[in-house]
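not sure who needs this but someone in the group chat was asking about Carbohydrate ABC transporter ATP-binding protein, CUT1 family from Micromonospora citrea so here u go. i didnt clean anything up, its just raw.
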Amino acid sequence: MTGRGAIRLESLTKTYGRTTAVDGMDLDVRAGEMITLVGPSGSGKSTVLRLIAGLDRPDRGRVLVDGRDVALVPPHRRAVAMVFQDYALYPHLTALGNLTFGLRVRRVPRAEADRRARTAAERLGIADLLDRHPDEMSGGQRQRVALARALLREPSVYLLDEPLASLDAPLRLATRADLLALHRELGTTTVHVTHDQAEAMTLGDRVVVLDRGRVRQVGPPQQVYDEPADTFVAGFLGSPPMNLVAGGGTLGGRPDVTLGVRPEDLALDAEGPVEATVEVVEALGSEAVLLTRCPDGTRLTVRTGPRPGVRPGDPVRLRPDPDRVHRFDTATGRRR
Ligand SMILES: Nc1ncnc2c1ncn2[C@@H]1O[C@H](COP(=O)(O)OP(=O)(O)OP(=O)(O)O)[C@@H](O)[C@H]1O
C-alpha cells in the first residue's frame, strides 16, 4: 500500500472575505506517513484538510496528490476519506447501512458490501452494533462507525479532523491506540488535526505547527518539542507550556536573549540559583505543577513528582537543567 498518497501543498492560500485562513503554505506529506496538524483555534487546520479533500478551492497555490494537481478533480473522485468530529452519519440508516452505503453507490454487490462492512466493524469493535441507528449509539460508537466507513473507502489518503475530540478520556486513549495500530497495518497516508497535546506528540510521524495559516515548524514531535524553532512553537507544544523569560531576567542572560525552560526542567533544589515563592500547588495525582513567582515578578511553572512537600507561600529555590535551557532572539523570537 505504500507509495500511494504523497501530498504536496505548494504556496496554498485560502481567504474567506478578509480572513486569510491559509497563507502561502508549503508542505510535503510522504506516502504512508501520518502527520499531525496543530495550532491555535483559527490557525487554518481544518481549512487545509478541506482544501486537500476538495471541499474548498484554493485562491492560489496547488494541491498535488502523487504528483498530480487535483484542482480539477471533484471531491468524490479524489481518493480521499475525511472523518469529522461530528461523524456525519446518515441518521435514517443503521450502522450497517451507513457502512455499506458508499460501497453500494459504487455498485459493489450487497453480499460483498455486507462482508466488507462486517470486517471493518470487527476491526473497530462495533460488530454487535450494526443493527442500530446513530441515535441509538454513544458518541464513541458513532465515531467508530465513521472511522469504519472511512476505512471501507480504501482511500490513498485519510483526513481526520479531531476524530477523537468528542470521546471521553478512556475511550479516547483506546481509540488513539486503535488508530495507531490501523495506520501501522494499512500504511495509508493520514493527515490528522488535533487540539490535544498527547495526540500531537504520539499520533504522527511528524507534527506541523501552524500559526495564522503559516507553517511555523515541521518535524518529528519529540524533535519539535526538544528544539522549538521559535518562541511561538515553544509556547504552543507542551502542557503546561515552556517558561519564557524575556531579557533573561531572573534566569540570567542578556537583554537581547529570551530564555526558555520547560516546567519539567526546573527542579526544586535548596542550593538552586533561582529564588521563588510558591503561589499555587496543583496536585495532579501522578505529578504536581507548582506556579511560582520570583522577586522580580517573573512567574515560573515547575513540574515535580506527585508530592512535592511544599505549600502556597513557601519560599523555594529552583535549578534549571543547564542542558535544557533554550535561547531565543528576543526581537525575532527565533531560536539561537
Ligand atoms: N466558511 C468560512 N467562512 C468564513 N471564515 C472562515 C470559514 N472557514 C474558516 N474561516 C476562518 O478561517 C480561519 C481558519 O479557520 P479553520 O477552521 O481552518 O481553523 P482551525 O485551525 O481549524 O480552527 P479550530 O481549531 O478552531 O477548528 C478562521 O479565522 C476562521 O474563522
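also The two ends are 41 Å apart (CA to CA). if thats useful
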